[in-house]
Specification:
The protein is an alpha/beta fold and about 300 residues long. The protein folds into three domains: about 90 residues, Orthogonal Bundle (Arc Repressor Mutant, subunit A), CATH 1.10.10; about 90 residues, D-Maltodextrin-Binding Protein, domain 2; about 90 residues, Periplasmic binding protein-like II (D-Maltodextrin-Binding Protein, domain 2, 3-Layer(aba) Sandwich). About 45% of the residues lie in helices and about 20% in strands. The chain has eleven helices and twelve strands. The strands form four sheets. It has a five-stranded mixed β-sheet, with helices on both faces. A three-stranded antiparallel β-sheet has the order 10-7-11, covered by helices on one side. It has a two-stranded antiparallel sheet with strand order 1-2. α9 links the parallel β8 and β9. α1 crosses α3 and α1 crosses α4.
């Protein structure tokens, strides 16, 4: 017994005419007639009353039609459900902090789309701490984050690279000629930092606390362009990874004497099944960082 035979039989019963059912199904009338006859032979019962112009189900046909329609409805629902799942799998929601985003955009995402046009990437700008929560809550599929040595226990990750934050100042800042800067020196000057929810802020706050220092925080922002503008105009200093500073930014990066090393990693929910699309994205991120030698 085939689903196509059941579908032809059901359509013929509901329409009441085999020729019209064939038109509705976009197949030939003989194909419908042959399929229903084969179904009757297999079941050993007559399913239809036939006349010159119409058909109707026999008592056995009515019982079969009831079950037949149930099966077809379940089949159609199953096909629709997994079609939607398949479409969802081809859309990847990725969280990215602003500083990492400036490295990844446009290179990784544009390159990934050109190699995998069938996969839609939906980037969401978000702090690393918040990104972990959103991944665990299934609002994001992945996140490319900055992190310390570990992530939340419900997550898996692959480390992509590491980098050291620099203390960044404008061209007229009192410390602009220094070769290195200590956090004790930096604490004396106004700073602009990323807002809460960013691992970068957590790292800097913890380093200042460990030294019993109270930095002069002038402003918080989650916009990298705003932070760069404040630094360039000598309104405040800040901490940025040197890889995202360009000459035209007018910013001077200075290595910090204390440890401000951060890891960059792709994270996802532990024990989740990784689709082919997901594995492609992880592999592509890893290869891109290795190729660019971002360290």
């Amino acid at each position: 017994m085939k689903l196509s035979q059941m579908r032809y039989f059901s359509a013929s019963c509901h329409i009441g005419n085999i020729s019209k059912a064939a038109d509705e199904l976009h197949i030939s009338q003989p194909s419908v007639t042959t399929a229903i006859k084969a179904l009757e032979d297999e079941l050993g019962v007559a399913l239809l009353h036939r006349s010159a112009r119409a058909v109707s189900p026999t008592p056995d046909g009515e019982r079969f039609l009831l079950r037949c329609d149930e099966i077809l409805a379940m089949t159609d629902a199953l096909v629709q459900e997994f079609a939607e799942i398949g479409l969802k799998h081809k859309t990847i929601n990725v969280g990215i902090p602003p500083m990492i985003g400036s490295i990844l955009f446009p290179e990784i995402f544009n390159s990934f789309r050109s190699k995998h046009p069938e996969i839609q990437i939906n980037p969401v700008e978000i702090g690393s701490q918040l990104a972990q929560e959103e991944v665990m809550n299934e609002k994001l599929d992945f996140a490319v984050i900055t992190m310390g040595a570990t992530v939340a226990s419900r997550l898996d990750y692959i480390k992509l690279t590491s980098f050291d934050l620099n203390y960044c100042v404008g061209p007229n800042h009192p410390l602009c000629t220094k070769k290195t800067v200590s956090l004790k020196e930096a604490a004396n000057y106004p700073m602009i930092l990323f807002s809460g929810g960013y691992y970068l802020k957590q790292l800097i706050d913890s380093r200042f606390r460990s030294l019993n220092l109270n930095p002069n925080i002038l402003f918080h922002s989650n916009q990298l362009t705003t932070i760069k503008s404040f630094i360039k105009d000598d309104i405040a200093s800040g901490f940025i990874m040197p890889q995202i500073i360009n000459k035209e930014d007018g910013i001077i990066p200075i290595p910090v004497e204390e440890d401000l090393r951060m890891n960059v990693a792709v994270i996802w929910r532990k024990d989740d099944y990784l689709t082919k699309e997901a594995k492609s994205f992880i592999a592509f991120c890893r290869k891109t960082f290795e190729t660019k030698h971002i360290k």
